[in-house]
Amino acid sequence: MKAAEKSLQQSYRLRQLLIHLMPLAALAILLAALCWAVTSKGYRLDIYLNIVFNEAVVLAVVATGAVFIYTLGSFDISLGASTLFSATLGVMTYNATQSLPLMLLVILVTAIGCSLLSSLLASVFHIPVFVTTVAMMSVLSAIAAQIITKNGGALGGISIPSDLLRPLDTPWFKVVILAAFVALSIFIFSFTKVGRRQKFLGGNPVCAQLTGIDLNRYTIIAFVMAGLGVGLGAFLTLIYTPSVTTGTASSIGMNIIVAIVFGGMPISGGPNSKIYSALVGGFSYILLNNTLKILIDGNTGYGVSQIVSAIFFLAVVYVTSINYRTKLLPR
Amino acid sequence: MGAPILSMKGIHKRFSSTIALDGVDLDAYPGEIRGLIGENGSGKSTISSIAAGMQKADEGTMTFQGEPWAPASMIDALAHGVGMIVQESGTISGVTVAENIFLAETSQFRRMGLIDRKAMNAQADKALSDIGIQNVRGATPMAALDFQTRKLVEIAKVAMKEPKLLVVDETTTALSHDGRTILYQLMKRYRDEGRAVLFISHDLEEIMEVCDTLTVLRDGKLIRSFKKEEFDADQIRTSMIGRELQGDYYRSDFTPSAQNEAALEASGLCLGEELKDVSITLHKGEIVGIGGLSHCGMHTLGKVLFGAAKPERGSVTVNGRTITSEAAAMDEGLGYVAKDRDVESLTLSASIQDNIAIAGMERYAVSKGIILGSRERRYVDKEIDELSIKCSGRDQQVSQLSGGNKQKVVFGKWIGRGSEILILDCPTRGVDIGVKQAMYQLMMKLKGEGKSILMISEELPELIGMSDRLLIMKDGRVEKEFLRSAELTDADVIGYMI
Questions:
Q1: Is B370 on the interface with A (CB under 8 A)?
Q2: Which residues in chain B land under pLDDT 70?
Q3: Alpha carbon of B220 to those of B19, B45, B216: distances in Å?
Q4: Where in the sequence is the domain holding A65, given as residue range(s)?
Q5: Which of A212-226, A293-307, B391-405 has the lowest mean pLDDT?
Q6: B46 at the A interface (CB within 8 A)?
Q7: Smallest Cβ distance to A192: which of B343, B351, B369?
Q8: CATH value at residue B137
């Protein structure tokens, strides 16, 4: 029995290792698929890799911050609107003051402020935090749209001088920003009391409370981290495209949900949450999206690629849940 | 004896790296209450849950009433004659009692496209009355009921189907005397009607009293079956654990002992009908037992003492500080083992490490709240070793552990952080005799170290066996206090509970 159990344990651990590596394997396969799709259509690979990189960096940064919220078993639908709003105020600030540091400060403060407001409203009114984020999404989108249409028009949008941030529009700068934020998040998540308590809270809020962990406090911290990610994402968006329209970052809120699940994090959050899921999932999702756009030409392409993404999403959630169910022992 | 109503041959089952059943044969005969007994993790729940369609065996064959038996689900099994009452909660909170009883069957009450709730509630009332539950109605929201009453609703739900084989999985630990009486009467009726009952319990006295035959499992294997006339407590215990119990079970001394210094003082606690002017002083090095019927307020008292429920009047003081929250309680060295282990004491999806380490971060964190993996691992390994937690490693998910080992993880969580005062609400609920003894010995060790323990329990023998002082609660008040004595018996105490 002992030898049999040891052998089973080894095979179980091997299976768990393979499950952990699956998101990375999927990322590699999606990268290969994109390269194949681009070259088979005769397009320039360097251009597509650049597009994927720039889109993925923004998604990965915002998703990294969002992991703190998802870990609690909650989600924030307003992250896209918050990115748009922060970038809008940043552009308005620069155009009024010609000060780049002030623009950056306004972007970060706005993003963190919006996040904090969502969590504080939830704490004050004792309602689920995602409810307040739904309201915030509407409010922030509406205000941003008002500012943009009033100052530049819905289609053209508002912009900063195109050469202002061009020196920063390099892969190295973006990688450094992304790496620094991911490193900070991993540190908080895995090597501090705050991160440990957040994961535990997400796993079982009742038990966490009976272990002295204050839900409101850690919800606020999670939203501050998400706000920081949104602020950095808004800044990176402006580096890539110096103009802001009403459609800027509009799909980020939903894309984050898919990206985090693609990265191997359980949708219910809790102790198995991982920061790297945002990184791996963010790049995987953008790779998938762009590959599908290339393969499915024409006006129907967008809709079909969304459907394929949705099927991928359901498949990943299903596989994750199978793994969860097999871990259950009756007692 | 005739042919078995259920026959299971060569059943094998694995969960990840754990072998839960290793070729077990089990028969249940008509007109028989068969006990299933064994330590936590012995495979009792696994084999019964396979019989009841909760999960499938990896290998082996089953027949039920002479036909091949392979239920697709618990609903399928119940529809064909095998019903199971599970150990933990098997009901849904957000709906009524009637909706729980007729879950997935509400269509039978459909009238012109709408559910006839009046008819459904009436049927539910009848199902409850049929097994002797008079104080719960079908229209009652499930969330308004306590753990015991929910369990009774679950019994009614299964009994309504009149199964040929009833599986009762450690249900009595959730029930008070009245609830147990209802269940025992149901089981006896089934036996008298020529049906079969598989009854799982850790309570040896109970199982010897109720059952006609007994099957002992250990480490996923069938060890031995006993007929009623062969029942012998020592032999059964030895079969269960594979050795004789060493040392005392309860405390061997009969003199109350404690230091003079008070560790915790509660005065004038009031909270609705649950607590009415309750005052308690717990001294250092003292074990205070709190007993009573399930609704007497003792479980609420545990929560109030730990700061998890706010009293309307009165206060709890430790080291001169009033306890107003769980965090404040922990700052002052309190630990709380909740009754509902899976919901209130553990995060099942987390590892053993996560569950033990979460409460003791102050003990192993370096400055500014930074955690180093090596220090954390040492902290957790020490608790795993000292409490002899049976696991494949500290990374194993808690949901994979047996009930007794889960409870050890809960103890490790609070003992590891050096809790000076432990509030234990039904600490031995659902754990086997070996783990129980280990916990009693641990309590004695902690008492010897000057720690204070307040043990809330529905089991009088352990309260009498372990407490320096025993407080009996009734209707939210402390009705009577007993000092430890060799002469103190259940009979002396019960009168003050009822």
A1: yes
A2: 1, 16-18, 87-90, 243-247
A3: 7, 11, 10
A4: 46-250
A5: A293-307
A6: yes
A7: B369
A8: 3.40.50.300
